[in-house]
Specification:
single chain; 364 residues; alpha/beta; Rossmann fold; seven-stranded mixed β-sheet; elongated; binds 6-O-phosphono-beta-D-fructofuranose
């Protein structure tokens, strides 16, 4: 009989509903093979300071698939290849401490690391694979912008939450004859905006893939007035840009963070609509509400399937690979084919065409 394996698992980057379902599936699939699973806290931090590594037994993960967040904690600023450290002078400098991670991984006699994360975390996982750690990646992001997989868990939940918010805004917008501008997440991809905007009967959807013209947005809104609709719902992806303009950021964010913090486009669009149409306009940012709470059944099932597949991939020796949904199957794809790429909304895709057919404007 082959020796029982000792698997490490971590979750990195922004949380997404479904992370706990992956953990549950990994632990149970491993347990049923007489393997052991250990949880690494806060991305790779738990492999630098190994005191808090936790043995994940079936009791610890029982039915956590219904819970949002991650029982392991996560971070989007702990890249061990570029770790921010405050020096004696109080300045932040960046150090490569990846060798310490590799040493601890070997010292603790782990056989494999399951890294659950988005593009940034999967890139780190791949870099550790190149340094000799047997890695399996599990894709995670509410943004649904990872290539090679049809969909990521967390996305369906985020779209559901945004759609419910839009449903609620219709009645208050109608009562006050207002324009409501709703900013949603998604980084440089418009998946959340497009799908929630379509499901929630938005009048205008602004996505990064289609630079928008504010005059056209306003014309569309005022066109509604002619047909007796005195209110409008506008969904704006946080990464949407006016034609010839630039993406709006809140700043660089915390030290060590790989990406800038997007945000502010909703307020800008609302101010312009108000100025140009004279209509009473309000804006709101859905923000982290889109990431909180229980995953939908779709996300739970996808995450459970990803987790169990990751364990099967260990059995098959598919290291340096990521589990991906290639309907109807879950398949291994090389991590290097995924990292550093963005899956954008296809402009000629059926969803955009459906939205256009039913009269939704993209401001183009
Ligand atoms: O990638 C997921 C995401 O929620 C993006 O949609 C958003 O831009 C970003 O993370 C927000 O990050 P943070 O949680 O660090 O504010």
């Amino acid at each position: 009989m082959s020796k029982p394996l000792k698997i490490a698992i971590n979750t990195g980057g922004g949380d997404a509903p479904g992370l706990n379902a992956v953990i549950e599936a990994v632990v149970m699939s491993a347990y049923n093979r007489q393997w052991e699973v250990y949880g690494i806290r806060n991305g790779y931090a738990g492999l630098l300071d190994t005191d808090e590594i936790v043995h994940l037994t079936p009791e610890k993960v029982r039915h956590i698939s219904c819970q949002g967040g991650t029982i392991l904690g996560t971070t989007n600023k702990g890249n061990p290849f570029h770790l921010p450290v405050t020096n004696a002078a109080g300045e932040v400098e960046f150090r490569d401490v990846s060798n310490r991670v590799v040493e601890n991984f070997k010292r603790l006699r782990f056989d494999c690391l399951i890294a659950v994360g988005g593009d940034g975390s999967l890139k780190i996982a791949y870099d550790f694979f190149l340094k000799g750690i047997p890695v399996i990646g599990v894709p995670k992001t509410i943004d649904n912008d990872l290539t090679a997989t049809e969909i990521t868990f967390g996305f369906d939940t985020a779209v559901g939450i945004a759609t419910e918010a839009l449903d609620r805004l219709h009645s208050t917008a109608a009562s006050h004859e207002r324009v409501m501008v709703v900013e949603v997440m998604g980084r440089t991809a418009g998946w959340i905006a497009l799908n929630s905007g379509l499901s929630g009967a938005a009048d205008v959807i602004l996505i990064p893939e289609i630079p928008f013209d504010l005059e056209k947005v306003c014309d569309h809104i005022m066109g509604g007035e002619l047909h007796g609709q005195h209110y409008a719902i506008v969904v704006v992806a946080e990464g949407a840009v006016p034609a010839g303009g630039r993406v709006i950021c809140k700043g660089e964010g915390e030290a060590g963070r790989q990406e800038v913090v997007l945000g502010g486009i909703g307020e800008y669009v609302a101010a312009e609509i108000s100025k140009r149409t004279g209509k009473d306009t309000r804006s709101l940012v859905l923000g982290h509400l889109q990431r909180g709470g229980s995953p939908t059944t779709f996300d739970r099932r996808l995450a459970l399937r990803f987790g169990a597949s990751a364990v099967r991939m260990i059995e098959a020796g598919n290291f340096g690979m990521m589990v991906a949904l290639v309907p109807p199957e879950i398949r291994p794809v090389p991590l290097e084919q995924v990292i550093g790429r963005v899956k954008h909304v296809p402009l000629e895709g059926d969803t955009i065409r459906t939205a256009r057919d039913i009269g939704i404007s993209f401001g183009d």
